[in-house]
Design a protein that fits this description.
mainly alpha
Length: about 200
Amino acid sequence: MAGWRLWRKEPVIDEPTPEVLESIETSAEDGLAMARLGAIMSVKNKILVQAITQPDAFDPNTYMLPAKEAVTTLAVESLETAAIVSADLKRARKLRGEAMYRDDYRRGDVKNLTIRLGSLEKVAESLKDNLENEEWLRALITEAHELAWAELSREMERSLDRKEASEFGDENYEDERKDRLRQFINLDLAQLIEEQTPEY
């Protein structure tokens, strides 16, 4: 029997069913929407920073490169996650039985892993394609600009409202308003940006 050895045949990989393909499309749409929102928030924070350091007229072209960088980062993250899921899927196809711990994927997880992998790859592909879509990028920048100024207005109102006229005396209230606005720009807004800037 020395010439015999045990071996296990690789499982046959079936083509995804229409149901799985539909789920991949739906999941990818949701994933792309979330990724786009992440890019919008990144650009929004850069617009807020400019409002402090370079309060010039808004120029969308200024944010084309930051928008592309944010989208590229998200595409790379999606591909990196896809590589991990792909390895999990390959192992899961070979294993039967019940999972022993959280990431112990088995045959029963193949469908969900297939959907997740397909979704991640589609999101990365869509993000990559949109890097050359100037209209898509400009729409993203416009949304970021609208969010930035809406947030700036809210924070400015809250900051000024917190400081009652009695702090400065009725006679000095209007005179002190400019000082409070300057303080808001230099301190409160800077803190707001720091709190909301995502870590990539």
